[in-house]
Structure formats: structure tokens, C-alpha cells
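Sequence only, no structure available. Ideas?
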Amino acid sequence: MTDKHALSKDTVNLGQAILAGEDYLKQFDLSYFHGTDNARDESAWLCIHAVGLSPIEAVDYDLVLTADELANIHMLLEKRAHTKQPAAYLTGTAYFCGLPFKVDPRVLIPRSPIGALIVDGFSDWFDKEPANVLDLCTGSGCIGIACAYAFEAANVVLSDYSEDALEVAVENIAMHSLAQRVTAVASDLFDQLPDRQFDLIVTNPPYVDQEDMEALTAEFEHEPEMALAAGDDGLLLVHRILKEAKRYLLPNGVLVCEVGNSADALTAAYPELPFEWLQFGDGVGGVFVLRHHQLPD
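Reply:
I predicted one. C-alpha cells follow.
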């Protein structure tokens, strides 16, 4: 190694390891868009995982580290710095709506602002809990599985075109013991779905346009391109979703869709549609809501 070591012989507890890891990661041209937004939190995630703890639970930062734990921390920090893999792929776990999910390079790392709507139970649009939910373009299954927790009596369908992604989603269904209410279906959007209707369709489809794809940092190169890229305007799949969604929604049903930076292109393409654009507390947007009667026939 030519770079400064992450840890020294003076590192004796978890808190010191996290600070040393922060200094180490700052030496490299890294980006933080996959669960954290800074080097300290990224270091904390890796260090806490390395000692067998969870980053979403209370942690004793005075925990004295063993030589093996220090070595494991150093190994994870080195991998993060030199391979530019996001921390979630190195640990094999990401967190969404306070829940753990298995992730690997077959699926995107969960980070959708739709999580805030799930925690709130989509209360602005439903007087009673949705009984049937479709998570379209499910990836790891995090959105649909989180909906199953939010709506304890709901039946949830997870759908994705990628067989690799569905394998991960099925593992997450099993991990959360939800097989009685959550099922996974291989489908090209709606094409292979059973002919049924849902109270709620939630989707985070690929929506990155060509210009943004070319500007993505190295961390994104570890994620499946088919889950990100969506043509010149980022709307390749969204056009189809808008065209077909009404058939799969109940009369009082709601479509919630994330399109990120492609929001302007979408409103320009459909000036007649009354998109309800949502803004979240951290300034993130790019998510719209349409009710059944507002969708094109």
C-alpha cells in the first residue's frame, strides 16, 4: 500500500476506528450516494458491520476492538477506497424504512424517497389501508416488502424484468418471513402480470437519461445498468407505465412513481396530465402521484 493506513496501533476502540476510517477514505476520490452522504458515516457503516453490529441500532463507541476486528475493518475500508464499491455491496446489507435488505450487484442499493411515503402509510391518498399493492420494477423488493410491513393485511406483488433481481427479492421475502402475503413475478412491466387490479402501484423504474448516465461516478458502475438507464430522455419505461397503469388500478387506486431528474422531461411530454409532484424534507423530489381517473385511457 502506498496510501496512509486507515488504522494505527493506537486505535483501540470503535469510535477511534471510525474517525481513522474517515480520514482514510477522504484520501480518495469517492462519492457517497448509496446510503450515506459523507466519509464519516460511510466509515461508521463499515466499521460497525465489521464488528458484527447493526448501524441502525445503538452502538457502544467505546467498544475495545480485537486484532481480528481491526483487521476486518481495515480490509473493508481498503476495498471501499480501491474498488469504489458502495458500502452496501461490501456489507451485503442495505437499510430501507428501518428494515434490513440483502443486496448485491444484481440489484440497485435502496435509496428511494418513496420510503418516507411508506412510513406515513400513503395517508394523503388512502382513508383505509390498501389491500393489494404492486411494486413494479422491484429490484431487491425493498419498496414492496416495506409496504407489507406498513399494511399488515395487504397482499403485495413484487415484479421485475430481471430474473437476477427477482432472486434477490425472493431471498428478502424469505428473510422477512412474508411469503404468505408477498409474491414475486417475472414480468416486462405489466405484460406477464396476472389480470388483476391493485389499490396501489408503486414503482421506481429506470429513469436516468443518457446525459446523466455519462456523468455518473464510479460507484454507480457497480450497479446493474439496466436498472438505471432509460434512453435519451430517461422515460423509456415511464411512457409504458403511464399508458398501461390504469388497467391495473382499482377505481380508487393510486400510482406513485419516481422519475428523479427526468421530471422536467416528463411534464414536457405530458402537459395534459395533472401530476402531483411531491417534495420531501431533504429537498429531494422527482416523485409523482396520479389517481386512477387522472391516468390516460
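The first strand starts at residue 93 and ends at 96.
Hope that gets you unstuck.
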